Amino acid sequence: MDFIDKKILVCLYLSALEPEKSPYQRLRSLAYVPKDVYDRKIQELSEKGFVDKNHTPQISFIGRDAIKVVLVGGVFDLIHPGHIHTLKAAKAEGDILVVVIARTSTAMKIRGKRKIFHDEVLRQELVSSLSFVDLAIIGREGTLYDTVEYVKPDTIALGYDQAHTEKDVAENCAKRNLNVRVIRLNTPIPTTKSSTIKDDLGDSFYKT
What we know:
Elements: H1 3-17, H2 23-30, H3 35-47, E1 51-53, E2 57-59, H4 61-65, E3 69-74, H5 81-91, E4 96-101, H6 104-111, H7 120-128, E5 135-138, H8 144-151, E6 155-158, H9 166-175, E7 181-184, H10 194-201
Parallel strand pairs: 3-4, 3-6, 4-5, 6-7
Antiparallel strand pairs: 1-2
Helix pairs in contact: 1-2
């Protein structure tokens, strides 16, 4: 499978999660591919079983098996070097990096009394601006595993300081018949944390 074929499968997968942007629009943002070449590639991938081509092209089960999706979740209220290292390390584990942004209501439960500076939409925009993030989505209502079931990743990458254990995450995924690899990422700068930065900034963060 060549570079363009792989990227088309990636774009089909991402558009299934976020239909507002078509697969071809996503592809054009990655590489210049004329529409007739894209259509020919879709036909070839369909003939090989990687794409279901009924009314609109969709990635098939075979196509989905050809790409690896990594999911990372977090609040991401203040983006710092620790986040950058973690997300880059997560992206290296697969073809697609999907980052789940915790809803503000969920973040407040996680962080307790600690202030959340940015709402969920702005936090999504901040993470989406990182070039190595393929898609940032706001977590679905319910539990973490409702979002995992929606994304259906191959790998869940936990940050070095996240409270969930690999065993608990894997067991909860298995209860939903999700075969997911769960890994724990390390960081070269464990002292860099959002909580520490916020403690240092105090209430002065947005004051001039």
